[in-house]
Amino acid sequence: MARKSRFELKLLELESLAGDSSFCARKLAKACGLSLRQLQRQFHRILNQTPKKWLTRQRILLSCERLSGDEAIKEVAIDLGFKQASHFSREFKRIIGSTPSQFVEKHRFGGHDMNNVAFR
User: Fold this and answer.
1) Where does residue 49 rank: exposed (0-12), middle (13-18), buried (19+ CB within 10 A)?
2) What domains, with CATH codes, occur in the chain?
3) Is 59:28 a contact under the CB 8 Å cutoff?
4) How far apart are CA 23 and CA 30, in angstroms?
5) Where are the alpha helices (DSSP H) in the chain?
6) How far, in Å, CA of 119 to CA of 36, rounded?
7) FRET pair for 114, CA 20 to 30 Å: which of 1, 50, 68, 101?
8) What is the largest CA-CA distance in the chain?
9) Predicted confidence (pLDDT) per residue in 34-47, tens digit
10) What is the reported pLDDT for 43?
11) CA–CA gap between residue 30 and residue 28 (Å, rounded)
12) How far apart are CA 68 and CA 115, in angstroms?
């Protein structure tokens, strides 16, 4: 049986580690016991994407949950580390397919179920 890498052992914890690491690849690498370059290689090998893209997607997924409540778009964007609301909106639309405002309008008041959100 092949020995699992530290990263493979941490895969199940990645989502919580992402938030604990402030969605920062360097901090995530440290939490996984890897160098940044090792983390990049493991992400490419196992998830076929960069840590930065994965972390951005995690932030957007978390923002969907928070926007389904009564939190303001700007507040969510800032809390999740986006320095500009415009950057948050651009990334949100790229991943979700609608702007945060459109998402809120559609999901906040309509008996929203996060399992039915369509992602790109």
Assistant:
1) exposed
2) 6-48 (no CATH), 53-116 (1.10.10)
3) no
4) 12
5) 6-10, 14-20, 25-32, 36-42, 51-67, 73-79, 85-96, 100-107
6) 28
7) 50
8) 51
9) 999 999 999 999 89
10) 94
11) 5
12) 12
And the tokens for 81?
């580390």
C-alpha–C-alpha distance, residues 95 and 97, integer Å: 6
- Give the amino acid at 50: T
Q: What is the pLDDT of residues 74-87, one digit of tens each?
A: 999 999 999 999 99
Look up residue 30 and give its two tokens: 């440290």
At which residue do the structure tokens 């986006």 appear?
82
Amino acid at position 113, single letter: D
> Running DSSP on this structure, what letter comes out for residue 3?
P
pLDDT of residue 119: 56
